Each structure stands twice: as C-alpha cells, then as structure tokens.
Amino acid sequence: MAYVLAGGRGSRLMELTDNRAKPAVYFGGVSRIIDFALSNAINSGIRRIGVATQYKAHSLIRHMQRAWNFMRPERNESFDILPASQRVSENQWYEGTADAVFQNIDIIQSLAPKYMVILAGDHVYKMDYELMLRQHVDSGADVTVGCLVVPRMEATGFGVMHVDEKDGITDFVEKPADPPGIPGDPEMALASMGIYVFNTDFLFDQLRRDAADPESGRDFGGDIIPYIVKHGKAVAHRFTDSCIRAAEEIEEYWRDVGTLDAYFEANLDLTDVVPRLDLYDREWPIWTDQIVAAPAKFVHDEDGRRGTAVSSLISQNCIVSGATVSNSLLYSSVKMGSFSSVERAVILPHCNIGRGARLTNVIVDSGVRIPEGLVVGEDPVLDAKHFRRSEKGVTLITKAMMAKMQGE
C-alpha cells in the first residue's frame, strides 16, 4: 500500500496556499503536485493507495475525486481519502506525519497490506517504487529510506543520512550545518526524500511505541527514523537506482517546489527545448483530471497583433488573441487580449490578461483578471508595493492583491 502524506500547508509558497494545501497547487500546465506521487504509485504497480489530508483540503479532495476515481475494489484496488477526523480523540487532529498514519491503523489493517510505502505528496519527480521495495525485501531492512545524492553543503536543509559502505544508515541528522559525506565520495551527501518503505506490522509497532511517548513530535523524520537507526536496521535507497528517465532526460529530476522561486523555476524547466522533466513520456504517464474543454486557439495575424507562443506550454481552452507568449506556461482557460504579452510567466487557470498588459517573471494565481495596460516585472519597487515579490524577483499576483490595488 502507498500512503501519501498530503496534509501540509506549504507556507513558503505564501499566498498560493492561502486557500489550498501545497499538494493541490497546480503544476506543469495540467497537473497538481500530488499527481506525481500518485502516478508513481500507479505506474509502479501499487493498487492500494491512501491519502491523508488536513489543511484546507477541499480543492485537493475534489481533485482526487475527479482524477483518481478509477480504482476498482473488484480488482482488489482501493483509493482512500483520509481527512483528519478525530478518530483517536475528539480533540486531536493529525499532530505530525507519523500520527497521520497512526490514527488510521484500523483502516490500513482492514486492507491487510504486507508492506507500506510512505510518500510525501508535495514533490515533483518520477520514480519506480517497486525497485525500492525490492531492495527493502532483499536487504531485510526494518526501514528503507529514499535518498538523493546532493553536493554535501547543499544538504543543510535536509535530513541527512550517514551511511556505511553498504548504504546501511548509521546516523540520521536533521538539517546539519556540516553534513556528513558519502563513503568514497566525501563531497556528496545522502539527503532524505521523505520516502520510506516498511513491513506493515513493524511500522504499526513503531507507531504505537511513538504514540505512547509524550516527548515525541509524532514525525517520521524527527522521531520514527532516528529511533530505528539507533535500535534497528535502516538502509538507504538511492534515487539514482529507481529514477524514471525518458530517452531525452539527462539527469535525475527531483524538486521540492516549496518556495515561490522553486515553484516558478520548476514550471519553467518544462519550457526548455529538451525539458529536464519529460511530461510527454508515454511509458510513465502523469495521471491527472482530464477536463472537457476546447483546444487552445491563436487568432489575428496582423503586424503588431499576432497570436503567437514560443517555448511555451499552452493548455486547453486558452485563447491567445493578438497576444504574445514567450517561455511561459498557460494553464487551462486563460484568455489573453490583443497587444498583451507574457514572458517567463506561470499563469494558473481561468485568468484573463487585459489588452496591452505586459507581464514578466510572474506567477498569476487562478481566477485573476489583469486590467488593461498593467505592467508587472519592470519596476521592482512598484511591483513590491502591490504584489508579493520573491527573493529572486518573481512577482506573485492573486485576486486579493489585485482587488486591493484597484481599490486604492
């Protein structure tokens, strides 16, 4: 069984998560972030899936009901959405990632999985979990931890594994200032991906032990994994061993799109001539909600008023009317008026870009109406006055910000 932890807000995405959980944030033109973990599970042959939700989960639950309702119990398949529902105590919501599994032990037991694959629902990557599960079984580990190989000093924001020559985990350090290197490759480190494989019975024993500890934070990375490292057998699984790459993909692609800049850059990665993450890979599809909509349309063919898009992804139901799109993603149902332009822009669904508007280095949240002639991305001081501006100069525009600016 795959169990996806999808309850987090993702506060570093600022206003993008004011009304939706981070796993429900749009990504890649047609998908939501959670679709990557769920698609990996399906493509890996896992047909029992549970998703724990908590923070502002309505749009996430609605998306999963629409996109993931094809699982059939008569084929021994199941897809369970598990909101925090005070199953253990009338005043207790999910208190941590481990608690989000502990509170649903009875539901998991009814499905009787032999192994549990615990996943984070807020990362973008393609991975075959079967290969990690096979390593777990062959090694006899109590827990197998999915790990990224990263430059050592870039691992300071992760949980880092100290391993022996056989990738047995000898220590687990949370966000160390001086991360330990890998044996034989001291300038690289193994950083946790937040992916864990357990034998189910062993996991339940650990969750019950942890729940009885009043000092625990009820967290996998902070409590469960460090305890097993000290008292059991923990083994690292390297992402390089199970990463899925299409023929054109030259590197293992994994992104935590947890900040505005990371989210912006990962979306724009898809506009490259040879994208680092291939969404066109039919061998490993990213499943999502297939909306019923008209094809994208480009109209007007006059000098200075020509509907064009270059190095961009244009989704269904978009109309580019005498406008210019460059190095950008337009999600579904975006309308662009004549003489408007967007460059290095991520435009979420149902936005309307007014005539003559110019947007550069922007994220526009869903449903925003950009007024005629608005210019964003050319005057940092003015942008920061009305909108959210990131450390790297990306401007986020939301409906609330736009309403406040127009009311001033």
From TrEMBL:
Record domain Glucose-1-phosphate adenylyltransferase/Bifunctional protein GlmU-like C-terminal hexapeptide: where: 294-397
Keywords, alphabetical: ATP-binding, Carbohydrate metabolism, Glycogen biosynthesis, Glycogen metabolism, Nucleotide-binding, Nucleotidyltransferase, Transferase
Signal sequence segment: none
Keyword Isomerase listed: no
Catalytic activity entry: alpha-D-glucose 1-phosphate + ATP + H(+) = ADP-alpha-D-glucose + diphosphate
Domain of life: Bacteria
GO biological process, one term: glycogen biosynthetic process
The protein's Enzyme Commission number: 2.7.7.27
GO terms, molecular function: ATP binding; glucose-1-phosphate adenylyltransferase activity
Pathway stated in the Swiss-Prot or TrEMBL entry: Glycan biosynthesis; glycogen biosynthesis
Pfam families with a match to the protein in the record: Hexapep_GlmU, NTP_transferase
Domain Nucleotidyl transferase: 3-271
Residue numbers marked as site, Could play a key role in the communication between the regulatory and the substrate sites: Q54, W93
Binding-site residues for alpha-D-glucose 1-phosphate, renumbered to this chain: Y94, G159, E174, K175, S192
Quaternary structure and partners: Homotetramer.
Function: Involved in the biosynthesis of ADP-glucose, a building block required for the elongation reactions to produce glycogen. Catalyzes the reaction between ATP and alpha-D-glucose 1-phosphate (G1P) to produce pyrophosphate and ADP-Glc.
Family: Belongs to the bacterial/plant glucose-1-phosphate adenylyltransferase family.
Name listed for the protein in its UniProt record: Glucose-1-phosphate adenylyltransferase
Provenance organism: Aurantiacibacter marinus
